[in-house]
Task: structure prediction
Amino acid sequence: MATNPFKITLLISILSIAIALILIWGTAQTAPNLIRYSTLSNAPYIKVESINVTANGVYIRLAIINNGALAFTPTGGWVEVVETGQVVNVTIINGTAIAKLPLTPQWMGPASVGVKGIVSGTLNGSRAYIAFFDVAPIHVINTICIADVSYTDCVLNVTLSVDTVVPVVIGPIINMSLFTASTPGYYVFETIGVVNTTVYAPAGSHNVTLMIRVSPVLGRYTYVYSCNYLSGFSKYTLWLPIGVTYMYPTGNVTDYILLTKTFVVGGGS
Amino acid sequence: MRVEALLQFALAIAFIVLWVFVPTWSLSGVNYSVSLMPWGFVVRFFGETHVIPPPTVYAVWLFALDAGLLPLVWRRSRYSLYLATLFSVLSLSMLMDTILFQQRYLQFHGYTIAPTPTGYIYVSLPTKPVLGLPTYILLALTILSIFNMITRARWLGTGPEDPIVAVVRVLKALNIEYSRIEHGVEVGGVRIVRQGGSLWLVRGGEATEVDLKTAITETVKVGLRQPVIGVVDYGED
Result:
C-alpha cells in the first residue's frame, strides 16, 4: 500500500485534537454572547391592604398581589410597625396574611404608619420569601350599637354596646322616637329637640345604659302617647339619633350617628 | 466484519439516539433546571425555556459517531482502532468540557432575587446534578474502544481454531504476503485448502493431503520467494 496507515493516523489525530482545542477556545470566547440573563418578571408582591384599629387590637391585613402566571401561597411571616416598634407574626386565614397587634397609646397619634416585614410561602412549589415595606392609612373602627331596650312607666332604658379605641361621651339625643313596627305605625312617644342625657364610656368594650325619663318635662315638643307599650303590638322600633364625642389625644371629635333597633316585647312576635 | 467492531458502532449509535431523549447531564429542580442535550443546554426557568448551544456539544456526538464508524469503514489497519479510541476519548473530554462550561458560565447558586414594587422576592431554587444514562453508554464506548484497541477487536472467542488461521498467523509473523481465498490461503502458486477435517496442498494442478505442519512449511518455503498482496482485518502494522 502506498500510504502508511501510521502517518494517516498521526495526521487525523493531530487534526482532531486541534479541532477539539479550537472548539474549547472558541466556546470560551463566545460564551458571553451565548448566555443570557433572566429574572422573574411580574413577581408577586405584598401591599398593606388595611390597618384597622379597634378596641380589641390592631389588625393589619396584607394583600398578596399575584399579577402574573406565578402564584404565591403564603405560609407565615412577620411584620414590624415602624412607628410603634411592634413585631408580630402573621397568621394565614384563607390565603390572606393577617397580623394582630395589641393596641397601644401610640396608635392614637398618626394617620398612617409604615409596615415592613417578610412573608414566607411557596412560589410554584418553590420556597420563597417576599420582603416588603409599605405605608398605609389607619382606619380607626369604633362601633356603638343598641344592645337592649326597655320601656316601662315612661322610663326608657337603652343599653348601648360600646366598642371604641378611645373614651367616648355619648349624648345628647336629638329627635328620638319609639313606634310600632307595623303598617300603619303608631307612636309610643316622640320628641322634637335635644335631650341632654349623656353617658361616659372608657376605651374598650363596654355596655353602658342610658336612662331617659320620657315626659313633657324634656321639652316643649315631647309627645307621649303611652307610658307603656301599646296593647296589641309586640314589635317596636326605637329611632335614636345621638351625638358621640370621641376623646382622642389630639382633640375631641364629635359625630352624630343614628342608632336604631327593632325589638320584640314579651317573647311574642 | 468483526462483532467487536459492530458492538462499538452499536454503542456509539445508542449513545447518540438515547441522548436525543435523555440528557447526558442535568441540574434538576422544580422551577429551575438545566439539561444537556445534543443541541445544547436547555434551561428552564419558571416556564421560560432557553437553549444555550456551546459549540463543544456538537463535537461530543460527532467524535462519538467517528469512534463507532471508523472501525467499520477502515478495516485494513489496526490503526483505525487506535484512532477510534482517540475519538471516543475526545468525545468524553468534550462532554466534560461542556459540563465545565455550565460550571463556568451558567453557574447557578440555587436562588433568585427579583425586585417588586414594595420590596423584593427571594425564591429558593435548589437543584441536584444528575449524570444521565447516555453518559454511562459513552463511558462504556470508551472502555470498549480501548479494549478493542488492545485486543485488535479479537476478545470474543471464535470456537476451536481454524488450521488456516494457524497458517496465516505464521505467515504474518514472518512478514510473508499472502491472500485469503475461499476455505484457504494462497501464497505464490501454492494454496492450502481446507476440506472437511483435512488440509489439501494444491500446487499447479495436483492436490495432496497434508498435515498442518507440512502445510506451514510448504507455504513458508514458497512465501519467502514470492510476495503476494495479503488482506486481513486490522492485520497490518
User: Anything to note?
Assistant: Chain A has a mean pLDDT of 89. Chain A has two domains: 45-140, 143-264. Residues 5-34 of chain A form the longest helix (30 residues). The first strand of chain A starts at residue 45 and ends at 54.
